[in-house]
Design a protein that fits this description.
Elements lengths: L1 E3 L8 H8 L8 E5 L6 H5 L3 E4 L8 H5 L4 E4 L8 H17 L4 E6 L13 H12 L4 E5 L3 H15 L1 E4 L5 E2 L4 H13 L7 E4 L5 E2 H12 L4 E4 L2 H10 L4 H15 L9 H6 L6 H10 L1
Parallel strand pairs: 1-2, 1-4, 2-3, 4-5, 5-6, 6-9, 7-11
Antiparallel strand pairs: 8-10
Helix pairs in contact: 1-7, 4-5, 6-8, 6-12, 8-12, 9-10
Length: about 290
């Protein structure tokens, strides 16, 4: 049995389920979600559901019972790091105690280059998983990265200029469809056990490329204007963006400038056995829907 947690998530859980049903019998797939009754779309799509609540560790033994492979979906990025770390630890321990043969964990890309406290728990979760289940597969996905830089594209398309403190940074976001397919493939087979993969596009783009995409979206020329942190802060506050959010955004840009997600890997191509979609296509999909 293949159990996908966070299955009701429209941007990741359901795409993984859709890809998984192409690889294994549908009867062997179970969608794990906190509130099965509030996710009728899963039943309508033909999936069996189980209650999986990371905040209720006592419920996880029955949730994972009988599963041979489990996806511990770590894409709940809006959760504070301390709470998310506890949630993931509970899920990891429960899966191990239930005798799950293959645990797949979706983690955060390049945690050593991303010093923001809001994602500080992922390295600890990876270490715990590796200590308890050496055969587990860790997928450091770039899920959400296309949306992150896509906000710059959307703003630039509306204003006519892409002003960001990104310097000469580059980034390699993978297309959500490729990430979902790769996750499903890893879950469905045993050939990737014990591996750690970073799922990026095969190419990296910079903010000049993002400005070019903004030009395509808006139909008018858009140029990239690098700005300093202070200039960005002043402009953001003038727009009414709260100071704490400005600080978070600056931390992300600093990570980009330090090389976070800037080096493509061949891991996605290895799993998919084909070339992944280009990075700019990933951002375009996030911007245009």
């Amino acid at each position: 049995m293949f159990l996908v947690t966070g299955a009701s998530g429209a941007l990741f859980g359901r795409p993984v389920l859709s890809q998984l049903r192409r690889l294994v019998p549908e009867a062997e797939i179970v969608a794990g979600t906190r509130h099965p009754g509030s996710a009728p779309e899963l039943a309508a799509a033909g999936f069996k559901s189980r209650r999986v609540d990371f905040d209720d560790p006592g419920s996880l033994a029955s949730a994972f019972a009988g599963a041979t492979a489990v996806l511990i979906n770590g894409t709940n990025y809006g959760t504070p790091a301390e709470r998310r770390g506890s949630q993931h630890a509970a899920a990891i321990r429960a899966a191990v105690d239930a005798g799950v043969q293959h645990i797949v964990y979706t983690s955060w890309p390049d945690p050593d280059l991303f010093s923001q406290p809001l994602m500080s728990d992922f390295a600890g979760s990876e270490a715990l998983l590796r200590s308890l289940s050496p055969d587990a597969t860790i997928l450091r996905t770039t899920y959400g990265l296309a949306q992150t830089v896509g906000r710059d594209v959307a703003t630039a398309a509306a204003t006519g200029v892409l002003a960001a403190p990104a310097g000469r940074a580059r980034t390699a976001p993978a297309h959500i469809d490729d990430i979902a397919e790769a996750t499903a493939r890893v879950l469905a087979t045993g050939e990737h056990r014990g591996k750690l993969y970073t799922l990026t596009a095969a190419d990296a783009i910079d903010w000049t490329d993002l400005a070019r995409l903004a030009s395509t979206v808006s139909g008018t020329p858009v140029e990239y204007q690098p700005v300093t942190d202070d200039q960005f802060t002043a402009a953001a506050i003038a727009q009414g963006i709260p100071a704490d959010l400005v600080g978070l955004l600056l931390g992300v840009y600093r990570a980009f400038r330090a090389g976070w997600t800037g080096t493509p890997t061949g891991d996605l191509a290895t799993i998919l056995r084909r070339a992944p979609r280009p990075a700019l296509d990933a951002v375009s999909a996030a911007v245009t829907g």
